[in-house]
Amino acid sequence: MEIILATFSALFSVVNPFGAMPVFLTLTQDDTPSQRNQQALKACLYMVGILAIFFLAGQYVLNFFGIRIHDLRIAGGLMIMRAGFELLSPGGSKKKISPDVVEEGQQKEDISFTPLAMPMLSGPGAIAVSIGLFTTSLSYFDMVMILVGIILLAAVSYLILRSSFQLTRFMGKSGLAALSRIMGFIVLSIGVNFIVSALKALFFAE
C-alpha cells in the first residue's frame, strides 16, 4: 500500500489534472457531456499506457543510449522545476501546451491522445518521474504495486476531468490560480528532490 501511495503522490503533482481542466473544457466546449466523459476516459487510459511503458522499458532505453539513471534524474529535475516555476507564475497552467497545439486540438474530433494524454497529462516531467521509479532492486510485486499506483492516478484524473465543469464553476478563476500555485510549489520541490538525490548518488555514494 505504501508503494501505491508513494507512486501516486510522486506523479500526481507532475501530471496535475487540475491544470489540464481549462484546456480540456476549451477543446470539448462543443461536445455533449457523454462525449466529454468519453474523451476524458480515453485520455486517462492512454496516460496509463504511456507511463507504464516508460516505467517498464525506460531503463532499457537509457542503457541503449548509455544514459545513467542519475543523468535522467538531473535532466528530469530541471524540466520539472521549470514546470513548477511556470505553475507559480500567473496563468502558468495555460503554458503547459502551446496555443498552436490548442488550435490544432480544436480542429480534431478526438483529442484524447494528443494533446490531452500527451503532453497535458503524461508530459516529459511525468515520463521522467515514471522512468525514475524503476530500480533493479524492485521485486515483481513492487512493480505491480507501482502500476496499480499509476492506474489509481488515472482514475482520480478521470474523476477530476469528468467533474471539470462543476469544479471550475465552484472554484472560480481565483481558486484555480491558487491551486495552480500550490501545485507549482509541490512540483518545484519534486524537481529539487530529483536533482539533489541524483547528485548525492553521483558524488557521495560510498
UniProtKB/TrEMBL annotation:
Transmembrane helix recorded as keyword: yes
Regions that span the bilayer: 46-65, 116-134, 140-161, 182-205
Entry keywords, A to Z: Cell membrane, Membrane, Transmembrane, Transmembrane helix
Topology with respect to the bilayer: Multi-pass membrane protein
Superkingdom: Bacteria
Family under the similarity heading: Belongs to the UPF0056 (MarC) family.
Name of the protein in question: UPF0056 membrane protein
Organism, scientific name: Pontibacter anaerobius
